[in-house]
Every structure is written in structure tokens, then in C-alpha cells.
Amino acid sequence: MPGKPVTDQQARLYMTDRLHHSQRVAAARAGFSERTARRLEADPRLPSQRKPARGRTVPDPLEAVWAPVLVPILERDPAVQAVTLLRHLQLTDPEAFPDDRVRRTLERRVRDWRALHGPERDVIFRQTPEPGRMALSDFTDASGLGVTIAEQPLAHRLYHFVLAYSGWEHAAVVLGGESFTALAENLQNALWTLGGVPHEHRTDSLSAAYRNLDAEAAADITGRYENFCGHYGLLASRNNPGEAHENGSIEAHNNHLKVALDQGLILRGSRDFPDLASWRRFVDEVVARRNRRREAAVRIEMAALRPLPARRTTDFTEVVARVTKTGGFLVHQVFYSAPSQLIGQRLRVHVYDDRIEAFLGATPVVAHPRRRGRDDGVRVHCVNYRHVIHALRRKPQALAGSVYRDGLFPRSEYADAWAALSGALPRRDACRRMVDLLGLAHDEGCEAELAFLIADSLARHDLPDARVLKENLEPRRRELPDDTPVALTELASFDALLEGSA
Q1: Within this chain, do residues 144 and 292 fall inside the same structural domain, yes or no?
Q2: Does 147 fall in a domain?
Q3: Are strands 317-322 and 363-369 parallel, antiparallel or unpaired?
Q4: Are residues 145 and 183 in the same domain?
Q5: Concatenated DSSP letters for 294-324?
Q6: Do 362 and 280 share a structural domain?
Q7: Virtual CA dihedral for 4, 7, 12, 16, nearest 10 degrees?
Q8: Which of 294, 80, 309, 79 is nearest to 188 (CA)?
Q9: Structurally, how many domains does the chain consist of?
């Protein structure tokens, strides 16, 4: 056909048909013209054997500078970009290279030079996963999901655990950074949820635990992680620095998990949750649905996992803190309140990612949600009003100027009550009324119900008064059942016991 070159197959077909047909018929059967047939008979070589060498149709604009100027620069450092070479030419010879007209030509020339003469490039060796062989851990930033707790943005990460063979995964919400505490606690939870232990645990996030630490602290964390892996019989490994593809199995799963969570939030219709526990439950439900699709592969992998040890191991950081006369103790520059009976005592504090637990000897005495210090140096306070309400009743005026006054209020309604009272009453009366409200919440165990009554009073532009609001509280139910059967022991049975002992 006109405009299409003759192929070797057409030429062979023509030569075969030419033995039995005329030139016109054989050319028609081969699919080209009679004139082309005459050329083939004049030169019986196949078309592929007669292709002329293709040469340049226009002059090479880089001929004068490529070998003497640009190649030495590339040989000195192959990472130089083509646009950098073009700017160099425009500086040294602006008349020959007044614009960017040769940029694409130069980029192709540099690309071809690197392919023929450039340095060796890294090769990725794809691996065949073995059942029960490797598990991977990573932390991934979840702020892009736009989750809020009670309409407040939640800055957090997700800890992500994945088995390389089956893809079984476990995810947990992490409020702090990529610390040993967050890794150890959530890795243990993943292993005990799975019900077995793989041979190797790989991560690229452990280096975050050493950041901003001196050599002694870094060695301590390294030792704790080694002891942790030894308890479970895990072979600890990490990918080479800067080689993120070596942790590719978990990196890809990170993206898939966040996409699944994002889609689940879209279906839910809201990204706001009433509390942190609700968001954690949502994450668990999404992960559980994803794991159900992998049940066949998980059954194969479970058969290859080693059994769990008899007990869990340490997954917290322990610090020792003394309870001061201010009614609390410091942990990582955050003040936590404690019952006044503990003033002067030294507590062992277990620091987790989301909570702290304090012990006097082996007895648990205090628990708080964990708080993080501020970068501007302002002290952060975590105060439970129940710890100090008895002292406030004796010294109510201390409330107004207390450094942790705002942390005393258990709910926003109590903070609104203080704002209304302090704005409308003298300082002495405002403190007395506020302390009475906190005391009523403590004594009657009605923190939530009282908060509702306070909000109702403020909505009516009334100042909340503990004596008035107490009358509106639902009375506690102290009724005792009157139909409980009581079995009385017959006195003759004691005589039988006495005779037996004689």
C-alpha cells in the first residue's frame, strides 16, 4: 500500500508466488504494486537488508562544545543537570546560545551519555516472602486524615505492624513521637493480638528514638530494645539508611491503610469523634475488615509462627519522681497532681505513650493521661481536682491565682462557670462558689450531671450556686433488696462437729 514500507514477510511471499504466477498476480497477493515487484526482482535482497544508514538531517548545535566543554564537566560529576550545563554555555558563549532553544537536545544528549558512560546504579532485588519469616513496623503521620476530637484537631501518628507474607496488619493511634515506648507497647499489642511471633522484626523508625539524645541515653534505649526482642526471640533488623525501598512492604501498606481510613471517614459522614477511644475503635474496625480478606494467607502464616512467651515484657519508660508540697510531681517537664497524702513520697512512674501510672512501692496510687511539654517553656499541668479539693475547701482563695487553676476544671462547663462567677462577683465570693461546685461534684459523684445543670443556669443568665443545684440533682439510689434469701445454719450441725473432734 502507498506510504507503507514492504516487509520481509511480503518479499518472501512474493518470491514464493512468483514461481507459479505472473509478476502482477504475485505482487497483488503479496500486497504491493507491480512497480515494487520490479524493484524486488532487480535487487533480490530483503527490505531489512537494504535499509540505508540514517544520518543527521540538520547540523548538530552542540558539536563545538559537547566533547571539549560539557563532557569533562559530566565526567567530573555526573549528577550535574542539563539545564545547569545550558546556563554555563549561556554565560561563557552568549552569542552562540542566546536562548533555551537547544535545551531538549542537551537533555537527550546528557541522558544518553549517562546511560553509556555514567556511574553504576542501584538495583532493587525483589524478595519472595516466606510464611512466618518477617514482620515490619513503621510510624506514619495521620494528620492528613483531618480527624478531630470534640471538634479539636488531633495531631497524631499511626503505628503500623504488617506481616510480609500474608499482609496481616495491626494499627494503633500514637499521640507522641516515634519513641521506644510507643514502639514497644504497640508491637507487644500486635504480637499478642496475632497470637504468635515471627522470626524477624524490621523497622526503619527506631532511629527516631535516638534523636536529640546523648550517647548514654541512646545506648540505654538500644539495650532496652535488644532486651525486648530477646524476650520474644525476635531477630531485630533495620533497613540501610536512606534506602526506604528496603522497607517497601510496610511503606505501601501505610498508604493503603490511610486511604482505607479516609474512605471509611467519607462513608461515616463526619471526621469528628466524641473522644479518643471512639477514633481508636474506628481504626480497629477498619483494620479488622481488611484482615478478614487475608484469612487464607494468615492461616498459612500462623502455622509458621513461633509461640508467644508466657508473659509480656516491659513496654514503658520508668522514672522516679518526688511528690512536692504543691501537690504533684514532674515527669518530662509536665506537672501531674497526686493525693496530698503522698507529699514527700518518691513514686515510680511508668510512662506510656498515652498515659502515666505512678506506684508507691508496688501499689498503684496515681494515673493520668499523658501530656507533652510545650516548646515555648510554659509549664503544662495535668491536675485532677479530686486530689486537691479538700485543701481548696480550707483555702478557697487560692483558686484565683493558682498556676494550674484552668487545669482544675474537669469539663468546659466548669470553666464557663468560673468565667461567669469571677466576672460578676467579688473575688472572695467567686472563689467560694467555684470551690463549692467542685466539692459538690466530688462528694456526690455527679460531675457530668452537674455540668449539665451549670450549663442550664448559665443559659438562663443565672450564676450557678452549689446549694441550689444540689436540690436539682437526682438522688442516689440507696435501696436495699428486701427479698434476699438468708439460709440459717442448724445448731445441731455444730454438735456433730464437736462429736467428730472428740
Answers
A1: yes
A2: yes
A3: unpaired
A4: yes
A5: THHHHHHHHHHSBPP-SS----SEEEEEE--
A6: no
A7: -20
A8: 309
A9: 5
Q: Rounded to whole angstroms, how far apart are CA atoms 203 and 161? A: 10
How far, CA to CA in Å, does 88 sit from each of 74, 85, 118?
13, 5, 21
CATH number at residue 154: 3.30.420.10
Are 187 and 266 members of one domain?
A: yes
**Which pLDDT score is estimated for 115?**
92
Q: Looking at the domain assignment, is residue 2 inside a domain?
A: no
CB under 8 Å to 357, separation ≥6 — which residues?
A: 316, 349, 350, 364, 366, 367
Nine-digit cell string for 91? 554565560
Summarised one tens digit per residue, pLDDT across range 311-355 is: 888 878 889 999 999 889 999 889 999 998 999 999 999 998 888
Q: Is residue 291 part of a domain?
A: yes
Cell of 97: 546560545
427 to 396, 398, 419, 434: CA distances (angstroms):
10, 11, 11, 11
Which letter, b or e, does each residue of 123-150 get, where b requires 16 or more Cβ atoms within 10 Å of its Cβ? eeeeeeeebbbbbbbbbbebeebebebe
Over 345-403, what HEC string results?
CEEEEEECCCEEEEEECCEEEEEEECCCCCCCCCCEEECCHHHHHHHHHHCCCHHHHCC
Among candidate residues 278, 304, 330, the one where a domain is terminated: 304
Distance separating alpha carbons of residues 65 and 110, to the nearest angstrom: 13
Pick the closest to residue 290 from 171, 173, 133 (CA basis). Answer: 171
* Paired sense of beta strands 169-174 and 200-203, if any: unpaired
Tell me what the mean pLDDT of segment 431-437 comes to: 92
Q: Are residues 139 and 251 in the same domain?
A: yes
User: Is the pLDDT score of 245 beyond 70?
Assistant: no
| Cell numbers representing residue 127 in the block | 524478595
116: exposed, middle or buried (Cβ count in 10 Å: 0-12, 13-18, 19+): exposed
Domain-located, residue 481: no
> Is the same domain home to 250 and 329?
no
Of 125-139, 163-177, 185-199, 218-232, which gets the smallest average pLDDT?
A: 218-232
Higher-confidence residue of 54 and 246: namely 54
**Claim to verify: residue 210 and residue 256 sit in the same structural domain:** yes
Q: Quick one: which H or E segment has residue 277?
A: helix 276-292
Give the model's pLDDT for residue 210.
Answer: 42
Listed residues 353, 382, 411: the one ending a domain: 382
Domain that holds residue 72: 66-117
Do residues 271 and 145 lie in contact, with contact meaning Cβ atoms separated by under 8 Å? yes
pLDDT at 216 over 60: no
Residues 286 and 166 reside in one and the same domain: yes
